[in-house]
Amino acid sequence: MFGIVPKLQQYVCAWNFWPAFMKKFIMSEKGPFTIFFWTPLAKWGISIANIGDMRKPVEQVNTLQQCVIAWTGLLFTRWCFIIRPRVYSLVLCNFCMAQTGLYQLYRKHQQGKLFTR
Amino acid sequence: MASKASGIFWTWVHSSTGPKTTHFWAPVCNWFFPIQALYDWNRDPAKISKEMQCVLVCYSSLFMRWALRISPQSYILFCMHLFNATLQGRLLIRRLTWESSQQKAIEDKPTN
Q1: B47 in Cβ contact with A17 (< 8 Å)
Q2: ipTM of the predicted structure?
Q3: Which DSSP string corresponds to A41-55?
Q4: Which of A60, A80, A85, B47 is the most buried (most CB within 10 A)?
């Protein structure tokens, strides 16, 4: 919209100490100055936040939210296999998201608090 | 007329992006995120996970941009992430406000 990010990209790429492969990475279509780089990291963030929440008491775990995370993760794991091109890193990301969600639900079930808000 | 209308419907049902495929249900199940945030409108702030809410707000904000940059653009996905970012952000603010009030209560407690 304001063209700030392309200008920043040009500015960073102009630094002399970058090797050729780094300049290629910075200027690429899926490089760190595009949204396509950061969206998979955001999805990994959900799994990491869930792993961090595993040390919290079970009462603080939101059953419905974990159901949604697990179900979305499983369905998108399947979706990643049927789209072209297949991106296996995205498969792994969604699979981990589903596993962390299912584990949180299992923790709640173990303490008999699966259906308590 | 009726047979043409039902033809369009059943053509869609049996199509490669219809309701018998994952292509349809994967984006639909994304809508469960904002629906969950609506269901938890009055959730006890002590039971809201600050980290998870931060991540969900960032996730939806980034995917709002992504939905407009992919080809073809997906305005439905954009709307879904807009709702999600707003509603999950509301839960985050609810938790932060509660933490702030708890901190204030501890500071205001008279020391004996």
Answers
A1: no
A2: 0.85
A3: HHHHHHHHHHHHGGG
A4: A80
Rounded to an integer, what distance in angstroms lies between the CA atom of residue A44 and that of residue A69?
12
Q: What is the pLDDT of residues A52-104, one digit of tens each?
A: 999 999 988 999 999 999 999 999 999 888 887 788 888 999 999 999 999 99
Tokens of B93: 């603010």
Which residues on B lie below 8 Å from A39 (Cβ)? Answer: 62-63, 66
pLDDT of residue B46: 92
Residues of B contacting chain A (CB within 8 angstroms): 21-23, 25-26, 29-30, 32-33, 36, 39-40, 43-44, 46-49, 51-52, 54-56, 58-59, 62-63, 65-66, 69
Predicted model pTM: 0.85
